Amino acid sequence: MPVPARFSLDPTPARPAVARAGSGRRRERRGRTGRGSLLPPMVPAWATRQERFEDLVADSAARLQERWGSRIDAISFDVALVPDEGSLVRAAARDEAPPLGSVLRGGRKQRQRILVFRRPIETVAGSAAAVPWLVHDVVVELVAEAFGLPPEDVDPGYRGSAPDDGH
Length: 167
Hints:
Blueprint: H1 25-28, H2 49-68, H3 70-73, E1 75-80, H4 85-93, E2 101-104, E3 112-117, H5 118-125, H6 131-147, H7 151-154
Parallel strand pairs: 1-3
Antiparallel strand pairs: 2-3
Helix pairs in contact: 2-6
Organism: Galactobacter valiniphilus
Protein name: Peptidase
Region (Disordered): 1-39
């Protein structure tokens, strides 16, 4: 006897038996599923805050790489959200602000690492417009520490403690 068309002999169902939370009839009832995102992936606003911050660090490293070449290639640049707890405790004990980044010395088989902390930089910058210059200055200061040079020698465009106001 043939099997009716509405039944399947396949033991694996085409859809899961239990729907995921939040994907119920409510949204589908008015035809609101299937919409795309508001922004296409190639637009800069598509990136997360973390990705945009990582791009700023990468841009600063690329600017320095043009000047220093293989010395910058020997350094790994990384981004962390906040410093580790030990760094925060030491800064608090000295009555200092949290560190904006750190240089981690490499061994024979490990590259030297520069770690830039996103949240402290965003807090110190105060505005979104000031974040790019502060990121670059922090990267320059950390590279200068790694090289044992003053920041002005690492990048002649180093501004120090204040953004360029155009005055």
